[in-house]
Amino acid sequence: MRNFTIPKTSPGHLFCFGLGFTASRLGLRLLKSGWRISGTTRSFENIDKWSSIGFQTYLFDGTAPIVSEKQNLFSDVTHIVASIPPTDAGELPLLFHQKELITAAKLRWVAYLSTPAVYGDRGGALVSEDDFPKPGSRRGHRRLAAENLWLQALKNSRASIQIMRLSGIYGPGRNVIDQVLDGKARIIEKEGQVFNRIHVDDIGTILMASMDRPNTGRVYNVADQEACPSGDVVRYACRLVDVEPPNPILFEDAELSGMARSFYSECKRLVTDRLNNELGVELRYPTYREGLDAILKKK
Ligand SMILES: NC(=O)c1ccc[n+]([C@@H]2O[C@H](COP(=O)([O-])OP(=O)(O)OC[C@H]3O[C@@H](n4cnc5c(N)ncnc54)[C@H](OP(=O)(O)O)[C@@H]3O)[C@@H](O)[C@H]2O)c1
């Protein structure tokens, strides 16, 4: 079993549609190994932040192409991570750059970052990538449509396209320990509700493993090995930092965003055998406990 830190493939050029939490952490790891990293953000502040560490950063808010086609943005791009969520306008990278992506001469690997919302509610059952998607929310329908657009768009290109269905992402700078310390953690109780999580750096490792083992059209559930109620995670974080856990709030009484409500209305446990069997990845943070312990250690 490999527990590697960089892909075996020689350093390439990774372009990230959306230099968000996951893509930027992956970019940082690859940058240190000699890769070129470029990508997009919506804010000038982030352009400054990412440029200062060595990413070539472009402004892209989905209303116009990143640069004109003539500028040949993707001419030496070898790898792409697509992490911009779908919008009402559609799948933004493809809306503006599909033609260039199909013809990009050096492009060999693309990952579309999706979500398990495409499976819909499974009443807490195990769900593998072989289970047919049955989205129950608008969010899930949009994601499934976006996955299919990427698969279709790159079907006849030289690049391999893989779909990564990521469970709840956490890591340094975005985690329940910080919420507890900020007094913002909540325990929402809903009978039988569980979900998986995934540490952002395990996602990075999985993406790098996939770069070494491209498998076009393949779908991967990217999740930890313990689906559990969110209350378990909050209580564990509270114990770590010695803070009294907040009083639980019943789901029916909780004030939740539309996104959170749709999230809590579905329940499933993700099967992740492909990570190990096909990509050879052993998670560094198999449950939230290892993940939160490591985050606390670095504080
Ligand atoms: N967070 C989770 O738990 C979770 C779980 C499963 C799947 N996902 C999905 O997996 C992907 C990666 O997640 P993440 O948490 O790493 O993402 P993230 O930190 O939210 O980053 C998303 C990136 O997309 C850009 N973006 C968002 N909306 C945009 C728009 N309308 N036009 C142009 N750019 C836009 C953001 O720009 P800025 O740099 O300007 O912010 C950011 O760079 C996302 O698609 C996310 O929805 C997330």
3D structure, described in words:
The protein has 299 residues and is an alpha/beta fold. It has a domain at 13-170 and 197-223 and 270-283: Rossmann fold, CATH 3.40.50. The protein is 34% helix and 17% strand. It contains 10 helices and 13 strands. It has helices at residues 21-32, 44-53, 92-103, 138-153, 176-181, 200-212, 230-241, 258-264, 273-277, 288-297, and strands at 13-17, 36-41, 56-59, 79-82, 109-114, 126-127, 160-166, 168-170, 187-189, 197-199, 219-222, 248-250, 269-270. The strands form 4 sheets. The protein has a 7-stranded parallel β-sheet with strand order 3-2-1-4-5-7-11, with helices on both faces. Helix 3 (92-103) links the parallel strand 4 and strand 5 (109-114). Helix 1 crosses helix 6 (200-212) and helix 7 (230-241) runs parallel beside helix 10. The two termini are 30 Å apart. The relative contact order is 0.15. The model has no long low-confidence stretch (mean pLDDT 96). The site of NADP nicotinamide-adenine-dinucleotide phosphate (NAP) has 22 residues, from helix 1 and strand 8. NADP nicotinamide-adenine-dinucleotide phosphate is lined by residues 18-22, 41-43, 46, 60-62, 83-85, 87, 92, 113, 115, 166, 168-169.
